[in-house]
Amino acid sequence: MDKLTLLTMKMIDYESGCPARINHFLKVTAYARTIAEMEGLDENRLYTLTAAALTHDIGIKPSLEKYGNCNGEHQQVEGPPVAEKMLTALGFEREVIDRVCWLIAHHHTYTDIIGADYRILVEADFLVNLDEGGASADAKSQAREKMFQTRAGLAIFDRLFPEIAHCK
């Protein structure tokens, strides 16, 4: 098995008993890969982005244990050490581990989004969160306007939420 498949299974084990979190990271990963491929991301960055999408919310469990909540700031602090340990154990390269941990540490920070992988991860997470969270039409419209910049992310958004796209 390749490392990304092993990581997927490791994350499923990590989130065992919580199908909502497992489904969430699998959906974010699918959207991230689709957007990345449509945007022409190179294979190396696609590989790193996939690892980041699989692990982006790895900080939820330690945040719940330590703080009793899993707000974004806590996830960004607690997630990278857990991800680093998991990725190292699976034999990921140091460069990949460092970038994945950086992306986890910033995936709830929406200012100064620099880098295609960062942009795509945020957009993919927003697509899933807007749907799973039952966001209002106004929240979806604001997210579309403020958070989506890639052509692929916008195309997926407009197909997922056509009622919002038609208002533009």
Describe this protein's structure.
InterPro entries: HD/PDEase_dom, HD_domain. The model has no long low-confidence stretch (mean pLDDT 95). 74% of the residues lie in helices and 0% in strands. Helix 1 (3-14) runs parallel beside helix 3 (43-55). The chain has 168 residues and is mainly α.
Summarize the structure.
The protein has 168 residues and is an all-alpha fold. It contains ten helices and no strands. It has helices at residues 3-14, 19-38, 43-55, 60-67, 72-89, 94-104, 116-132, 137-147, 151-160, 162-165.
Topology:
Elements: H1 3-14, H2 19-38, H3 43-55, H4 60-67, H5 72-89, H6 94-104, H7 116-132, H8 137-147, H9 151-160, H10 162-165
Helix pairs in contact: 1-3, 2-3, 2-7, 2-9, 3-6, 3-7, 4-5, 5-6, 7-8, 7-9
Beta content comes to: under 5%
Mean pLDDT: 95
Shape: globular
Radius of gyration: 15 Å
Q: Structural class from helices and strands?
A: mainly alpha
What is the percent of helical residues? over 70%
Report, as a whole number of angstroms, the end-to-end distance: 45 Å
Task: Tell me how many strands there are.
Answer: 0
Order of helices and strands: HHHHHHHHHH
Largest sheet, in brief, is:
none
Uncertain spans: none
Number of helices: 10
Can you give keywords for this protein?
168 residues, mainly alpha, 74% helix, HD domain-containing protein
